[in-house]
Design goal:
The protein is an alpha/beta fold. It contains 17 helices and 20 strands. A hairpin with a 5-residue loop joins β4 and β5. The longest helix has 17 residues.
């Protein structure tokens, strides 16, 4: 439940959103294109459409591994989404599985978020947007989808009031972060937020912990206790795990919410509370085991925190945020994540939500730093020493159409291979000929990542092959006049220029930014 006056009613059809989940340029993660035409076609190529952060300038995907020929995304009148890959060498993946030919997604699959992989380098989430993107940042509440935007709006709206707030959501969805955000944006923000985990209270001392006690009120009470309600005077009191409140305490909380009054243990007079209550739980409070009168008082304003699986478009920006935090405290450079691994992360349903994502990412980084290849399925859900077999990978389930050869892409269980398997190494690095290296670079518009993936080797190994190659040059070692003439003859096309000069496109682009060629 939420307060009707603050609920956004949206009867109109949602818009189709395309959010960059992963990109070789990390700054592009989280950029979006919103298809404002509710019926029509989106053409997705290296040059179109323009993706942007809120209030930012639009840029195309730009990456050389993305086809110049567009992939077509069609929205039908019944809100099915039809994907038509281009006639090109670009590998197209849907929910982690390579596809060829036309595929159709149901409206429910777009609600769950569909992950489109382009050229084994870029991941884009197709999802519904129920509001337009906007900049409304709140510390700790990361996300670019409509669920995250509306959550931040709700927090800003209720923070300035003194109503009790009930935060509902699965474990790991960020209820404590939301509580801190409500306090931080309230008029009480200059006082400290007082928090208590109701599940950790000792039932025999819970009343004294919450409401205080006079000296001698119980055995061992050598001095008066202020209690948490007293500590939170003029501030906010966060009651985490409210569903675990001892039954004897629930009527006392009800009285505080009804009248504002409470009585410390052993005291002769009531005290009046000026604390603003924020409560949170992952339990079902609408059962006979919880005081329903207390629930009615707590639900003056309810915020439902969405699970991560219903905001798949936010996984990229969450990953980037967590990686940035890890880099800030790491004493050594962090290893990069492979695109297949990020694809597996984006396609997983995360029963433990953001907390689980954070913990699994930490274990992934530790494995990579140790030179190991992370087993994603084992990392996300080991049970009794065994891997939970129903989350190992995702397949494309075929639902054939008699007329258009359309299949419906679904997330299903039981694939034999892990979703983060890297391409099989066909040869040892020293067995590749110079001609094979040149061909791989040509096939991928002289982008190193694409060529490395084609050869089935890591990016660092590809760098070594390029350094040893007799025909491939560093951009900074090429005469400036030669670059100027080649760029002019290529009509400013960086990839075409790189192919003629035989230098990686990324390096040439960076070099031209430092030394512009007129």
């Amino acid at each position: 439940m939420t307060s009707p006056s603050l609920t956004l009613q949206r009867e109109e059809r949602p818009l189709l959103g395309l959010t960059i989940v992963w990109h070789p340029d990390a700054q592009r993660i989280g950029e979006q294109f919103i298809a404002t035409n509710t019926d029509g076609v989106v053409e997705l190529s290296r040059f179109l459409p323009m993706f942007r952060h809120p209030a930012g300038d639009g840029l195309p995907l730009g990456y050389g591994g993305v086809s110049r020929e567009p992939l077509r995304i069609l929205r039908t009148s019944s809100d099915h989404i039809v994907i038509q890959p281009p006639e090109s060498r670009m590998v197209v993946e849907l929910n982690g599985v390579e596809i060829q030919g036309t595929h159709q997604l149901s409206p429910e699959q777009i609600t769950a978020g569909a992950i489109l992989g382009l050229g084994r380098a870029i991941l884009i989430c197709l999802h519904w947007m129920r509001c337009l993107p906007k900049k409304n940042d709140i510390a700790g509440l990361i996300g670019v989808g409509s669920a995250a935007i509306l959550l931040r709006d709700q927090i800003r709206q209720i923070a300035v009031m003194d109503f009790p707030v009930l935060l509902l959501g699965e474990t790991g969805t960020g209820k404590e972060i939301a509580a801190r955000a409500i306090h931080a944006h309230s008029k009480r923000r200059h006082a400290s937020l007082v928090t208590v985990n109701m599940a950790a209270l000792n039932e025999s001392l819970a009343a004294a912990d919450l409401f205080g006690a006079v000296k001698g009120a119980y055995t061992g009470a050598q001095q008066a206790r202020k209690g948490l309600f007293g500590e939170a005077a003029g501030a906010s009191l966060f009651l985490d795990e409210i569903g675990n409140t001892p039954a004897t305490i629930q009527p006392m909380l009800l009285r505080v919410l009804e009248t504002g009054d409470y009585r410390p243990l052993g005291a002769q007079q009531d005290m009046h509370s000026s604390a603003r209550l924020i409560a949170a739980t992952d339990q079902d409070l609408y059962s006979e085991h919880f005081n329903q009168a207390l629930l009615r008082r707590l639900e003056s304003f309810v915020i439902q925190l969405p699970p991560l699986r219903s905001r798949r478009e936010d996984i990229g920006v969450l990953l980037k945020h967590l990686l940035d935090e890890s880099r800030a405290v790491s004493l050594t450079p962090l290893p990069s994540l492979s695109v297949p691994l990020v694809s597996a992360i984006a396609n997983y349903d995360w029963p433990g939500n953001i907390r689980q994502l954070s913990h699994v990412l930490r274990r992934i980084l530790l494995a990579l730093q140790a030179g190991e290849s992370p087993d994603f399925a084992a990392l996300v859900q080991p049970r009794n020493g065994r891997i939970n077999e129903d989350i190992t990978a995702f397949n494309v389930g075929s639902v054939a159409s008699n007329t258009s050869h359309v299949t419906e892409c679904t997330r299903t269980a039981g694939a034999a291979e892990s979703a983060n398997d890297l391409p099989v190494l066909r040869k040892k690095m020293n067995e590749f000929s110079e001609a094979e290296v040149l061909q791989a670079m040509d096939n991928n518009d002289w982008y190193i990542q694409g060529a490395a993936q084609e050869l089935g080797i890591s990016r660092p190994s590809m760098y070594k092959l390029l350094e040893q190659h007799s025909a491939i040059r560093r951009a900074e070692q090429i005469p400036l006049e030669e670059i100027r003439q080649t760029l002019a003859s290529s009509a400013g096309d960086i990839e075409a220029c790189a192919a003629i000069l035989k230098t990686p496109s990324e390096a040439l682009r960076r070099f031209l930014k430092v030394l512009p060629v007129s």
